[in-house]
Design goal:
It is a multi-pass membrane protein. This protein has helices at 10-29, 35-42, 46-74, 76-96, 100-128, 133-163, 167-187, 201-224, 229-251, 259-263, 267-295, 300-306, 308-328, 330-348, 357-360, 362-384, 392-425, 431-465. It has 481 residues and is an all-alpha fold. It folds into two domains: 10-199 and 254-467 and 474-480, Growth Hormone, Chain: A (Up-down Bundle), CATH 1.20.1250.20; 200-253, no CATH class.
């Protein structure tokens, strides 16, 4: 263990760090079910309602790299505590918001706090638990709370909104984050900064604005269409700034994203696969609650309860992932998990406009939860295991960035395709049938993406295993040790 300071229990540290990750995932999903009530509560327009979700996602996705590098330069524990404090305060502000600008601003600041929490917490997990079975188990817990946080957000959002009003979704997050902050102060050991040098302000600004432009264009395209001038303009700005970022990084003595990070181990491969997994993951939690509410007619509370089997399957899969990997190897585990999730989504693509939760949703949810959780645990390990110690926070920020940006791309594309399928079906079929046709399209394409991702995982593994010996040994995911 490389941490310093007073000796603390690794279990207590893991509990606090897992709690931090849970709050980030909770903040992503808890507002989805409550959007109609939030809209009427603060007088949001149609476009402003989407920004209750987008403001958080934009800030989170765009600032993750900066958050990861700040953790390496200033100390991972310090950045974690600051991020938790910002997240708690902004959650309280969102609950107290009486106007839409204040609410949207508070959600953006929540995203800023999450961008500090996620990479710092993951780097601390890797620091507290050295390579071996202990790290594999810790990453299993990490995967379990990540999936559970997304599902719990839908459930809590429905329960709290129905019982006490939408404000309590934010008050509850604020209270929970404060408790996690106290647990982190008590349980997470102090660790020195992992790297010295100056913060790459120009590189940070360039990539942050580039990511913001990219995610903004993708989220706006869902509403205005891909040919809209503002969407095309945002993509042009993003492309130009990404090119500028590459030039800046080549000349900076302490770049935000050192090339060594992507050349080490299987970090690059892991991030490519994580982006593809994220493209399906975020879309799933967007479309499935909509199908339950708009087609099956479930209430917000029933929709939330319907996520519990998926959450339990997710926790089970995350717990089993290290054991499975030790038995059959990381490559087979990742491939099998992706194919399992693909099978669940293919099953889900057969949903009916006149179906039921038990027949159409329950079985696929269990398969999806198992496959998603195992794949997430293994790809997280793959994406950070080989990174140099001084770049552990950055590696954590990078894998979260690829998942978020992949999710934004996937959701924008799938929402467009689903909308097109619904529009084509609308003149010939009843409303519910047309809606269901769109959801079937989204689930079927998601299944195909995951099947292709599984094939890519096999191909990348073979390419790495065939690499020359001079490249050095390839670090294996922690679950192997």
């Amino acid at each position: 263990m490389r941490t310093t300071g007073t000796t603390r229990s690794p279990g207590a540290a893991l509990a606090a760090l897992a709690g931090a990750q849970f709050t980030v995932m909770l903040g992503t999903s808890i507002v989805n079910v409550a959007l109609p009530q939030i809209r009427s509560g603060v007088g949001l327009s149609d476009s402003a309602t989407t920004w209750v979700v987008n403001a958080y996602g934009l800030a989170f996705g765009a600032l993750l790299l900066a958050g990861g590098r700040a953790a390496d330069l200033l100390g991972q524990r310090r950045i974690l505590l600051v991020g938790l404090g910002v997240f708690a305060a902004s959650s309280l502000a969102a609950g107290l918001a009486a106007t839409s600008p204040v609410l949207i601003a508070a959600r953006a600041v929540q995203g800023l706090g999450a961008a500090a929490i996620a990479p710092a917490a993951l780097a601390l997990v890797m620091d507290v638990f050295p390579p071996g079975p202990g790290r594999g188990k810790a990453l299993g817990v990490w995967g379990a709370v990540s999936g559970a946080g997304g599902a719990a957000g839908v459930l809590l959002g429905g329960v709290l909104t129905q019982a006490w009003g939408w404000q309590w979704i934010f008050y509850t997050v604020a209270i929970g984050t404060t408790l996690v902050l106290a647990a982190a102060v008590a349980g997470v050991p102090r660790a020195p900064a992992q790297v010295s040098g100056r913060f790459d302000l120009l590189g940070t600004a360039t990539v942050t604005v580039a990511l913001t432009a990219l995610v903004w264009g993708l989220t706006t395209a869902r509403r205005t269409g891909w040919s809209d001038a503002s969407v095309l303009g945002s993509f042009a700005v993003a492309a130009s700034l990404f090119a500028a970022f590459v030039l800046v990084e080549r000349r900076h003595p302490h770049p935000l994203l050192p090339p060594r990070v992507l050349r080490t181990g299987r970090v690059a491969a892991g991030n490519v696969l994580m982006a593809l997994l994220g493209s399906v993951w975020i879309a799933l939690f967007f479309f499935l609650p909509l199908y339950q509410q708009q087609v099956l007619g479930d209430s917000p509370l029933a929709t939330g309860l319907g996520q519990l089997p998926l959450a339990f399957a997710n926790m089970l899969g995350s717990t089993l992932a290290p054991r499975i990997s030790r038995r059959i190897g990381a490559t087979v585990t990742v491939t099998g998990a992706l194919l399992t999730e693909a099978a669940g989504l293919l099953w889900l693509s057969r949903v009916s406009a006149h179906g039921s939760y038990a027949v159409d949703v329950l079985g696929p949810s269990i398969l999806i939860g198992l496959g998603l959780s195992i794949a997430f645990v293994q790809l997280t390990a793959l994406s950070v295991e080989g990174a140099p110690v001084q770049d552990s926070g950055l590696a954590g920020g990078l894998v979260n960035t690829t998942r978020q940006v992949g999710g934004a791309v996937g959701l924008a594309v799938l929402a467009t395709l689903a909308g097109t399928a619904t529009a084509h079906a609308a003149p010939h079929q009843p409303h519910l049938e047309a809606l269901t046709a769109g959801y079937r399209t989204a689930f079927a394409i998601s299944s195909a993406v995951l099947a292709a991702t599984a094939a890519l995982a096999l191909g990348l593994s073979r390419r790495r295993s065939a690499a020359p010996a001079s490249d050095g040994p390839v670090p294996q995911p922690a679950a192997h040790h």
